[in-house]
Design brief:
CATH topology: Bactericidal permeability-increasing protein, domain 1
Radius of gyration: 20 Å
Helix content: 25-40%
Number of domains: 1
Largest sheet: 7 strands, antiparallel
Shape: elongated
Number of strands: 11
Number of helices: 5
Length: 253
């Protein structure tokens, strides 16, 4: 099966600066989808996730997506929320995307004023790496710094992306992300935060019991910040990709 070029690049979280020229110069087996061919796009996403998420695509300088390394992201305090915390992560790995299954990929047309919608189901997403937290959850203070492991089970990822066209010569139309909204909706979340309360075992166990018993309420409060962080990551990736190759190279138009 050939890989739709647009999806290889959409999923590639790396610089593609070594890719130059036209699609005909790209590695064999890379196929451009026709615009509005949602079936082609969905098949391409799922093929790439199954076969290239862990290894990457060396010919396109696309690094592996699973694990996906994230340098840092932060969820800030919300004084009006029962989950009023500063929660930050640095040098964390996001695992599980290779198991994702695309369900929808609509809106890819020559009219960039239309929104593009992507929907994917992921059996399990795991965030692992250093964290720090300070604030209050419900009525209890929480503080800690160490390694975290957060598991999101049966997660739906829904993204709506808006581009604007950028012309760079005849038959060279590039796409720039002007807005992106990502919603992450798991059916269950478990939290494990090492070294809470400077390693005080009783306090740590009580807090873990609290946050895991109330996982849904807590995640609902964190969800806007989590979704915003995912959106910023996705925007950075898409800007690098769609700034390198034109729509004429990505699609059959």
């Amino acid at each position: 099966m050939e890989l739709p070029l647009a999806i290889v690049l959409l999923l590639g979280c790396a610089s593609v600066s070594s890719v130059q020229g036209h699609a005909s110069e790209l590695p064999s087996g890379i196929e451009r989808c026709k615009l509005m061919d949602e079936h082609c796009l969905i098949n391409g996403i799922n093929y790439v996730l199954r076969n290239y998420a862990k290894s990457g695509i060396k010919e396109l300088n696309v690094i592996p997506l699973d694990p996906l390394h994230i340098k840092k992201f932060k969820i800030g305090r919300n004084p009006h929320s029962p989950v009023n915390i500063d929660l930050s992560f640095r040098d964390v790995d996001l695992l599980g995307l290779h198991q994702g299954v695309a369900r929808k990929a609509s809106g890819f047309t020559s009219d960039l004023s239309r929104s593009i919608e992507l929907v994917m189901d992921v059996p399990e997403i795991v965030v692992k790496g250093p964290y720090s937290v300070d604030g209050r959850i419900l009525i209890l203070p929480i503080t800690g710094k160490g390694n975290a492991e957060i598991r999101l089970s049966k997660t739906k990822v829904h993204a709506v992306i808006k581009f604007r066209p950028v012309s760079k010569g005849e038959h060279q139309t590039y796409a720039e992300v002007v807005d992106i909204k990502v919603e992450v909706t798991p059916q269950h979340v478990t939290y494990h935060l090492e070294n809470l309360f400077n390693g005080q075992k009783d306090l740590s166990e009580n807090m873990h019991a609290l946050i895991n018993e109330n996982w849904q309420d807590i995640f609902n409060e964190l969800k806007p910040g989590v979704s915003e962080a995912f959106g910023l990551i996705a925007k950075s990736v898409l800007d690098r990709i769609f700034g390198k190759l034109s729509l004429e190279q990505l699609f059959i138009v």
